[in-house]
Amino acid sequence: MPDTILIIDDEAAIRESLAGILVDEGFVPLTAASAEEGLQVLDEKNISLILLDIWMPGMDGLEALRLIKQRFSLPVIMISGHGTIETAVQATRNGAFDFIEKPLSYDKTILSIKKGLQLAQLERDNQLLRENGPAVAHLIGNSPLMAHLRQQIERVAPTDAWVLIRGGHGTGKELVAQTIHRHSLRSKHPMVAVNCAAIPEELIESELFGHVKGAFTGATENKKGKFDQANGSTLFLDEIGDMSQKSQAKVLRILQEQKFERVGGSRTIEVDVRVLAATNKNLEEEIEQGHFRADLFYRLNVVPLVVPDLAERREDIPLLVAEFVKQFSHKGIGWRHFSADALDMLQRHHWPGNVRELRNLVERLVIMTPGEEIGAEDVALFLGNVPLHPPPAQPVDPMYRHLSFKDARRRFETDYLSAKIEENDGNISKTAEQIGMERSHLHKKVKALGIAVK
Ligand SMILES: Nc1ncnc2c1ncn2[C@@H]1O[C@H](COP(=O)(O)OP(=O)(O)OP(=O)(O)O)[C@@H](O)[C@H]1O
């Protein structure tokens, strides 16, 4: 989408010639004949950069620059016919990005505009990276379900299709969205994420679409929404099932026309945004109950992705544990290692909170276990009394398969006691003590079973 550049200059000839140059270079020019008019345009339009004359009747360029910088973070290039070093220094101090002199050189002006736009984009990206936290993790897991999901991601990522990601809490829906974005043509800008469930219903619209000053109590300034921030990039709408009907209607319109209006505003804003949406709600049920728009659901669900519950891909648990141990060790905790029994126990847990629950548990264990090895006892301590997924039933040992219960028991007792007595070199007292049995009782058993003692 082309950048819109605002030219504020009282000389009509300058405005016209600059506008012509800008059109030739693929920008959209807007013009204002005074600082006051320029400030008005800024309130109403989505401007990427300003060319601002210094000497104008009424409010001069330096004062306008001060007001603009207070309210917007936009690159401003000052232009002047009577440039002096002092005014240039003053303008830079007030936050001007560059200073060019009349008569304007075509090349210099375009170069300065391009640099200013690049810098603004870098600043926006940095801001988003700061807001969205550290670098994105990789999707771990080799189970057939994860391999299938990865294939689907690879197929859909480079297209511009909107995607609905479904799955339980903490299964990794946001990570899937990040992975799609990272493999998309929009990946040079950060993805913008919004958790619709975390924002009070009355503020969702303003958060997503922005608002104009005075739209509601507390709206003291014009504010850009997440759709503006994500222009040219990807917007991740988490918990889309929690969005109000009004917001759903607006999102549907963006999907169809890439247009929306700010809260309280009448101007239509065009954006180029790809939306990835996620939900753990049953949207079909929400539609039936009249809470979710069927048309939005069908438009979003063109490429449905389902992130499986962790309990459906237990084979991924050892890999995930290894990855999380690595992440936490980097935080200065030191290396830990999970014993085979501990991993087995983790694989039998039912994980209602999915990967997030596993990650939190590994973090707690890594911090709280003093030794290097984390054993099944440590895991049991932290998992508490939560019922474990029962281990799959083992087939009956062929040795007992055709015996009655009584004979199988006799066979087991004979084998077990013979082995234990041999281990203790035929010493009945030592054996009884080791296996927790009365000595006299063991004697009777040995006799009854006909075990030969050396
Ligand atoms: N396959 C995976 N590989 C590595 N880490 C994962 C994986 N899946 C999830 N995680 C991690 O688990 C945590 C939860 O994942 P995420 O936030 O993506 O889940 P979600 O489904 O969006 O959760 P919610 O439903 O609560 O919004 C994050 O720290 C994420 O990095």
Automatic annotation (TrEMBL):
<dbReference type="GO" id="GO:0043565">
    <property type="term" value="F:sequence-specific DNA binding"/>
</dbReference>
<dbReference type="Pfam" id="PF25601">
    <property type="entry name" value="AAA_lid_14"/>
</dbReference>
<keyword id="KW-0597">Phosphoprotein</keyword>
<keyword id="KW-0804">Transcription</keyword>
<dbReference type="InterPro" id="IPR002197">
    <property type="entry name" value="HTH_Fis"/>
</dbReference>
<dbReference type="InterPro" id="IPR001789">
    <property type="entry name" value="Sig_transdc_resp-reg_receiver"/>
</dbReference>
<feature type="domain" description="Sigma-54 factor interaction">
    <location>
        <begin position="139"/>
        <end position="367"/>
    </location>
</feature>
<protein>
    <submittedName>
        <fullName>Two component, sigma54 specific, transcriptional regulator, Fis family</fullName>
    </submittedName>
</protein>
<dbReference type="Pfam" id="PF02954">
    <property type="entry name" value="HTH_8"/>
</dbReference>
<dbReference type="GO" id="GO:0005524">
    <property type="term" value="F:ATP binding"/>
</dbReference>
<dbReference type="InterPro" id="IPR003593">
    <property type="entry name" value="AAA+_ATPase"/>
</dbReference>
<keyword id="KW-0547">Nucleotide-binding</keyword>
<dbReference type="InterPro" id="IPR009057">
    <property type="entry name" value="Homeodomain-like_sf"/>
</dbReference>
<dbReference type="InterPro" id="IPR011006">
    <property type="entry name" value="CheY-like_superfamily"/>
</dbReference>
<dbReference type="InterPro" id="IPR058031">
    <property type="entry name" value="AAA_lid_NorR"/>
</dbReference>
<dbReference type="GO" id="GO:0006355">
    <property type="term" value="P:regulation of DNA-templated transcription"/>
</dbReference>
<feature type="modified residue" description="4-aspartylphosphate">
    <location>
        <position position="53"/>
    </location>
</feature>
<dbReference type="Pfam" id="PF00072">
    <property type="entry name" value="Response_reg"/>
</dbReference>
<keyword id="KW-0902">Two-component regulatory system</keyword>
<dbReference type="InterPro" id="IPR002078">
    <property type="entry name" value="Sigma_54_int"/>
</dbReference>
<dbReference type="InterPro" id="IPR025944">
    <property type="entry name" value="Sigma_54_int_dom_CS"/>
</dbReference>
<dbReference type="InterPro" id="IPR027417">
    <property type="entry name" value="P-loop_NTPase"/>
</dbReference>
<keyword id="KW-0067">ATP-binding</keyword>
<keyword id="KW-0805">Transcription regulation</keyword>
<dbReference type="GO" id="GO:0000160">
    <property type="term" value="P:phosphorelay signal transduction system"/>
</dbReference>
<feature type="domain" description="Response regulatory">
    <location>
        <begin position="4"/>
        <end position="117"/>
    </location>
</feature>
<dbReference type="Pfam" id="PF00158">
    <property type="entry name" value="Sigma54_activat"/>
</dbReference>
